[in-house]
Design goal:
Order of helices and strands: HHEEEHEHEHEEH
Oligomer: single chain
Shape: globular
Number of helices: 6
Strand order of the largest sheet: 2-1-5-4-3-6-7
Strand content: 15-25%
Length: 217
């Protein structure tokens, strides 16, 4: 680095002198970047492009498989508070990971599930139902998405919680898929016992409801 710095200092007067020696109207003022400075700039640009290409080509996160344990996370809720995995201590943890486009994929299942635990058919005291908002699914500004979530929670799910995933944390650590309605269910040991991605068939939806009734008794 010291050699490069010395080259940059030594070559500048020569470059300015050569510029000053040029006749006519094309003569300009100012310093001409040294060769070392141009080489350094090219190297920085090349390194930045390489880093960007590595990010674009990075393989997707490996999804958590059934039987594996939940991974730590720290996300802010729509209520402004911060939550981690250990914040949820009830026997069962049910996660819904969705964005503005995918939230309708399992709307019928969510409505039925909500009606069942509000009626007591599924014991609400024994499980946490947590929504995770996927901010990366669409180009909606964060502040607009925040307002959308607040409105949805007031209208459909009063008293419940949505965590804001603004940087793809759950996709990186859990392998949840972008553009899909992801449903993960964890037992008391926080081992994964159910996972689905995308719209549930009627058969799968019924299987999941039966599972939730059984494990929350």
């Amino acid at each position: 680095m010291q050699t490069m710095k010395n080259n940059a200092v030594d070559s500048t007067p020569l470059a300015n002198a050569a510029l000053a020696a040029k006749p006519g109207p094309h003569r300009t003022s100012g310093r001409v970047p040294s060769l070392a400075a141009r080489v350094l700039g090219a190297r920085v640009l090349s390194a930045a492009m390489l880093a960007a290409s590595v990010l674009l080509m990075a393989p997707p996160a490996r999804a958590i498989n059934v039987g594996e344990r939940a991974k730590p996370f720290r996300l802010q809720g729509h209520d402004g508070k911060w939550y981690t995995l250990s914040s949820f201590t009830k026997r069962i943890l049910v996660m819904f990971y969705e964005g503005t486009k995918s939230m309708e994929q399992n709307a019928r299942f969510k409505d039925k599930f909500t009606a069942m635990y509000r009626a007591g058919t599924i014991k609400q005291k024994n499980f946490h139902k947590i929504g995770f908002a996927n901010y990366m699914e669409s180009g909606i500004p964060n502040v607009v998405f925040d307002l959308f979530i607040a409105r949805e929670m007031r209208k459909k799910y009063p008293g419940e919680l949505v965590l804001r995933d603004r940087d793809g944390t759950m996709m990186r650590t859990y392998g949840m898929r972008n553009g899909r309605s992801n449903i993960y269910v964890f037992n008391q040991q926080r081992e994964l016992i159910w996972k689905s991605s995308g719209p549930l068939t009627q058969k799968r939806a019924e299987q999941l409801l039966r599972l939730l009734r059984r494990i929350t008794k």
